[in-house]
Amino acid sequence: MADHPTNGAAPLPAAGGQRRAVFVISLICAAQFVLQLDFSIVNVALPSIQRELGMPAAQLQWIVTGYALAFGSLLLAGGRLADLLGRRQVLAAGLALFAVASLACGLAQWPIMLIIGRIVQGAAGAMVSPAALSLLTTTNAEGTARNRALAIWQATTAAGATAGIVAGGLLTQYLGWRAVFLINPPIIAIMLALVPRLPAGKLSGSGGSVDVRGALLVTTGIAALIFGLSSGQQHGFTAPATLVALALAVLLTTGFVLAEKRSAAPMLPLSILAEPARRAAIAAMLLIGAILAGYVYFASLYMQKVLGFSPVATGLALVPSTVTVVLVSTLGTRRLLARFSIKAILLAGLALVGAGQLWLAQITAGASYPAAVLPGLVLTAAGVGLALPAASIAITNRVQPSQQGLAGALFTTSQQTGAAVGLAILATAAAAATDGHGSLVDGYRLSFLIATGLAVLAAIIVALQLSSKSHRVEPRDRQAGPGGPPLPPPAPAQLGKS
Description:
The chain starts with 14 loop residues before the first helix and ends in a 33-residue tail after the last helix. By secondary structure, the chain is mainly alpha-helical. Helix 2 packs antiparallel against helix 8, helix 10 packs across helix 15 (404-435) and helix 15 runs antiparallel to helix 16. It folds into three domains: 15-200, Growth Hormone, Chain: A; 211-266; 274-474 and 493-498, Growth Hormone, Chain: A, CATH 1.20.1250. The protein contains 16 helices and no strands.
């Protein structure tokens, strides 16, 4: 199925095409930056919110959980809607809804108003993220152009997450907690004014209907899983609410798989998971998501509770890791992809992530930031800068244009689900180590040690599932001549298992 000429799926050799590609990448990455910024910016403001609105701790955690629950559970539905209704349209609708929800959060007078606003923010983010990523992949052909775009996307994601921690501390300290939400609408208004200049992202003849049953099953299944894990972390994994939620997640997920096999127009065509490279990359993303969520969480706690850092100082202490991710992703990984296979780069990235987590597992109560924390942060960040772009390429390459939104949603969903699962496991293990007459540091060390094991497990999966010939940058984004057709795509076997 061919794209509309207006959707930017084919690279343009003219200078105008290059400028357009830069504009598309810049605007799409700006949208991703805002999402990541808002995901982390609120954490520093939680104590101030609790004091002003008089929120009990049980309600307070829903400011974070409500966002994560809606975002993670609706990603697949958002990606499919982007494919069917048009990526630019879904992106614009999601941004507008995000701005309205941010305004409601910033003006909230009661806890329930703030929690509902955060849930709506998460739902809007689930529309924006897969639509933006699929616009990025369909605008840049497989090969050098797409690899560069995905590297910038990953760098933007890392920058937004860390900028949120720093900005959250500064805004809360000098302007109050409401500013962390009210900063969004004016930024999004500028983006919405530029969105009409994006390619439509709607495929010719790409009509179809949403698999409502499949969407409901997968959305409620993921929501039940995230809620169950969050409840287990807060109240224990033997609590009735936790057990019911996790059992419901298994039941709904099983029902979803069975329903998709019988559906004529499935929400998630199982053929998209047929390729070994894609399955391995998704599994790796689940495990990397778990490591990322845990190491930022526990490194932040260690710096504040053991080393005595302030929230702002903690955010600044994480800046070197963000800079490392940005530099490795944008300057290193895309060049390495021209010379080495995805398998080699993923394995190198996972090795660095494992080394970084192992370094952090050696922390002590009397250690210092430069010696105990910084090297582990930088090693982990360098590995992330290699692994995430490589995994995103493996997941989105060789996907039909009509399913690029779904592929983008798979990438983000695996990372978000992995983060929820990983944080629940690592936090539970750390709490158990501390409760067993250990210190806080004992719990943190155990969490980093488990994360090291997760990196090793991810490396084993990649080593077994990906061929050593797994995708290298192909000259697919070159033209046969001025105005000529693109060269044919490389053989499908290059991404698969030999």
